[in-house]
Structures are given as structure tokens and as C-alpha cells.
Design goal:
InterPro entries: DNA-bd_HTH_TetR-type_CS, Homeodomain-like_sf, HTH-type_TetR-like_transc_reg, HTH_TetR, Tet_transcr_reg_TetR-rel_C_sf, TetR_C. By secondary structure, the chain is mainly alpha-helical. About 65% of the residues lie in helices and about 0% in strands. It folds into 2 domains: about 55 residues, Orthogonal Bundle (Arc Repressor Mutant, subunit A), CATH 1.10.10; about 110 residues, Tetracycline Repressor, domain 2.
Length: about 210
Amino acid sequence: MTRARAAGGSRRRPGRPRLDADEQILSAALALLAEEGFQRLTIAAVADRAGVSKPAIYRRWSGKAEVVAAAIANSHRDRPDPVGDLRQDLAAELHDVRITYERTVPIAMVGTLLAEERHHPELIAAWRRWVVEPRRERIAAIITRAVDDGELSPETDAPLMASMLIGAFYGGYTQNLAMDDGWEWRVVTTLLDGARPHASTPSPEAVDGVSSA
């Protein structure tokens, strides 16, 4: 028996720290999902891209569907903090949508998830649970706060307005519209101008001095 074993058991083989390996695996899975699609994605390819062994992945997840779902959940954890200004907070959220798809998660990946919905509904479910729903809830909360503060009409449908804001990106992308750095502000301004409370407009009868009594 060696001195090392007698003192404290066998030495641990050097390797990548667990947390770092998890991040590498999930990042690799997300990148390959966007590049290859779910059907052609393999655990072997994920392991090769992440620089780990296949058993290292299977110790953490049962298969590629579970790995991809975890990668989706892990893909968007940093979110903008509201500052209390309605226009600025909404523009920041919309900017985050655009930057996410431009720099982090290619929008083609969403098409892959939708294409796989019939056979692997857990993938799009993970996307909705960890990315879509939290974002919509955050935007709706910003709008609800503005309604409570009197900035927006009491009749404002916060969840619907949140969906309209997010939908502006998908619509702009599919139409190949230019989405420059001022795009978010234009969308927010266009939407808010139609949602702010207005002074009541007098009826034609009132203007003409005709009473309805």
C-alpha cells in the first residue's frame, strides 16, 4: 500500500470541475441543436464538443432529450432588472429578446423545437417553461405596475400586450425587417401611444349642442 493510500485513500484523477463540465455540456448541446437539429444531434457529438466523455454525460442525464431540455433551461438565466420606468423597462426586455436570438440562441433552434413537438413535446415545453413564460410574466408585471400607477388604462390587458411586444420580434424576423438599435424604442412607443389613457372624446351630438336627454 502506498503512503498516499494509507493517508487518505486513492488520489482523485485530475479532470474538469463538475460545474464547469455541466456548463460545457449544456452549451455544446444547445449549439449542436441549432446547427444539426434534434434528430442528428448525438451524445457522442455533444461529448466531443464539450471535451468530456459520454459516460460523464450519462451520469448527469438519461439521454439526449433530457440533455437538450436542460440546455434550454440553462440558456437564458441573465435577465434585465427593471428600473421603474415603463418605456425603458419594456425596451430593455425587447432588446433582450433580440440579443438572445442574435447572439446566444439562434432563432432556427425554435423551429427545431416546434418540428420535434410531436415526438418530443418535452423540448418545446422546456423552452416555454424556462424562457417564454418567465419573459412574458416579467413584461406583464411591468405593464401591470404601470396600470396600477395610472400610466396605462385600467382596461389594458397586460398578458396580451406582453405577447404583442414579444411577437413584434418574431414578426419582424420573418419579414426580414431591419431591427437596429432604435427598433425596441419604436415598437414600445407605437404600442404605448395606443394604450395610454386619453381624455374622453365628446360625441358629435355634444359638439353640435344637441342633448340626448
